[in-house]
What we know:
Helices cover 40% and strands 23% of the residues. The protein is α/β, with parallel strands linked by helices. The strands form 2 sheets. A 6-stranded mixed β-sheet has the order 6-7-8-3-9-10, with helices on both faces.
Amino acid sequence: MITVSNLSYAYQKGNPVLIDIHLNIDQRSTAIIGQNGAGKTTFVKLLKGLLKPFEGEVFIQNQQVKNRTAAELAKIIGLVFQNPNDQIFKNKVLDEVMFGPLNMGIDKQQATENAMEALEMVGLHDKLDMNPHDLSLSEKKLLCIASVVAMDTNIIILDEPTIAQDYQGKETIKKVIKTLKEKNKLVMTIIHDMDFVAENFERTIVFNEGKVILDGDTRFVFAQKDILKSAHVEAPEITKLGEKLGYRKTFLTIEEFIDYKNQERNL
């Protein structure tokens, strides 16, 4: 769905932020991880058309990004900002979620249906007339997710979706991701929450100092201790626990670990 070749970018000449990135991103849910300053956000902005490549090319569903405006790309790729206050600008929750679909040319009836379905997914269907700025930070984040989901793009990128979320909020976002995957959407995220990555994303790409240093199945990636250490990235807590207990298997979830232990007992 996304092809990136020889991609480099610099905000100031001589200080590259991204260096020679080559990636083919298919429909697998994909997490982009790495320390602050690794180039993750810049990379996503290039995908979204908010920045233009310094060198190289980006194709999204066979469309060359540098030849498309951000408005044109909004019909195929949606981005949920890290800070919801940078995204929210309407006075009612329903109007906020309907804005994207209406701006894409979707008729009002369909836009309303899209918005209501998205708000139901994030648990805000009972707050249609509230001012978004009166919501909690967690709810604002969920509102922004709903706003992008309602646009029904084939690609959705979530920037730090678990920030300010409690357990219930994270569970809600997990369900949203699962639903989008079932609809054959490509879900991507920039995130520092490794436990959430392990539980929800099939593929993980590790950025470090503007380069991709690791890319593959999430279980494989979290098994590469030395490479992760060089990028100052820690594995999920359950992965580290399994390692400390001497298991060779790389665990991604608590449920997986418990099942494995139960199988051991039965043997």
